[in-house]
Structure formats: structure tokens, C-alpha cells
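Dear U.,

Please find below the material for section 3 of the report. The protein was modelled together with flavin mononucleotide; I have listed the sequence and SMILES used, followed by the predicted complex structure.
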Amino acid sequence: MSKPKSNNAKTISVALTLCLVCSVLVSAVAVGLKPAQIENARLDRNKNILVAAGMYNAESDTASDVAKRFKDFDVEIIDLNTGDYLDDEALKAAGIPDRNAYDASQATKNQALSEDLGDNDPAGIGRKPKYAKVYVKSDDAGNPEVVVLPIQGYGLWGTIYGFLTLESDMNTIKGISFYEHKETPGLGARIEEPEWRAQWSGIQSYDEDGNVATGVTKAGTPKDNWVDGISGATLTGRGVSNMIQFWLGEQGYKPYLDKLRQDSGQTIDNADTQASQATLTAKPNTELAAPVANGKEA
Ligand SMILES: Cc1cc2nc3c(=O)[nH]c(=O)nc-3n(C[C@H](O)[C@H](O)[C@H](O)COP(=O)(O)O)c2cc1C
């Protein structure tokens, strides 16, 4: 007659079996949900692109409205140092097999796709991607009407991710949105509020010498073309200010924006008045006005 197993051994084997079954279940659910999570993140990002472009109505827009409206944008990859678009061949040569799947913030983890910023890193991002993804909506003549630029930088508690939209003069800010951050609700997280974001609309990004001339002030200290900071969230405001200045500057999108402006015959100081005229008279584009590849993203 065999001896009955000890109670301890039975308890341990039941516990181990339970652990195994649970971990298999949890892993299966996590793996099963991954595609849905990726899809939701993509939809949320697209929605935030529309928010920054002033093309989203929070009260009435559905997911299918977002998908439909997002189709108005061409998705382009630019070389941040030169401001040029990358066509499919250049993308392959740069080691980017799929423009839609390219993620500039992931690229900062890849030595070949990014540069160390060293001490010259006001946005606190460590490494700068060599290539950035931009979203361009063109008018009927094929000239850029709005460009939506991804931005990121360190706030108080972590990296803030968002989008900044410029109008056709590539100087006037149309809107801004933030879709990921670690700032405190009621303090730094108020950067998400529509009332605070609305202050950015209509601001001129550059002075007449082409220097970045906008940012966030300390609350209650108004300054032309600067946005009033949030009371109790000076440090988040400083982070946003630094990231805006970095991404509008020489290390960021300035070479690209200068080229777009040049292509439509605009300069910083005449951009406002010439914007609509340039749209009417612009020649079929040289390198930048017409997107180089079919950059439509689903
Ligand atoms: C729990 C806690 C959370 C905070 N979160 C933020 C924040 O998200 N953003 C921020 O700028 N300041 C935050 N602060 C406040 C900062 O520590 C600092 O006091 C503030 O930025 C100064 O802003 P003020 O000069 O407008 O008062 C937080 C403080 C505490 C105690």
C-alpha cells in the first residue's frame, strides 16, 4: 500500500499548478490584447493630430470621423538636419523599411537613426532622431496648408509627447495637443485642457530674424507671442517651453519649415501677407511642396 502524500507536498503542487495555469492565462490575454492596444494607441495619436490641427470636435466626432478626416494628411518622413523629404529609396537607404511604422521616439534608441545631443539638449530628450515623421495637409493646388509636427520633451515628472500645428506661412501656430505625459492632475496635467491650449492659436513662432520667439511664461507675466503659464505648474510650463523652442529651432524642424516657406515664396516677415497669394501663384513644386511619396496612412 502506497503512503499518502504529505499535506505539504499536495498544497505545494496545487499552488504550483494554479500559478502555472494563471500565468498562461494572463500571458494569453496580454498577447491577445496587444493588437487591440496598438490599434487604440494609433487611433488616439491620429485623434491628437486632428486636435492639434483644430479638426476634431470632442462632442460629436466618432472613431470613423477621425479615420476619415485623417486621410486628408500625407505622412512624410523628413531629414531633420537638411529639412528634405525622404522618398521610398532614401527611406530604405536610411534603414527605415516602412514609413507608416516609423516611430521617431523609438528611433532615439537606435544609434544609427539618432544623434547624441550631449549638453545641447534643452528639451531633455538625450538623443535626437535623424528623421522625423510629419503630417501634411495640402490645399487643392498641392501646397501645404497645415503641417503637424510631433514634439517631445521632459516636463517635471517625465517626457511629454504632443503635436504642434503650423499654418501655411510656417510661422503662425494653429494649435497644440498633448497625448502622453506624467504631470500631476490639477497641476502640470492642465497642459491638456482646451482652455490652456487655446492660447497657442495665432501665435507667431519666429521673430523677423528667424529666431524662435515663443514659449511659456511664468503664470501672470504676459509677453507678446508667449503663452501664460499655469499657476502652480511653473516647472511643467518650463518643460513645454523648452520643448517648443527645441523643436522649432535649428536642431528641430526649422530647416524643414524654412524650405517650405522658401518653396512658396514666403519669408518670415512677409509670410502673413504672402501666404494666400503664394498659394495661388506657387509653381508646381520643387522638392518640398508636393509630398514625394504616397504617404497616406490608414
Ligand atoms: C505632489 C506634487 C505634485 C506636483 N506636480 C507638479 C507638476 O505636475 N508640475 C509642476 O510644474 N509643478 C508641480 N508641483 C509643484 C512644483 O513642485 C513647484 O512647486 C511648482 O512647479 C512651482 O510652480 P509655481 O511657481 O507656479 O508655484 C508639484 C508639487 C507637489 C507637492
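For the text of the report, you could mention the following: Residues 72-281 form one domain.

Regards,
Y.
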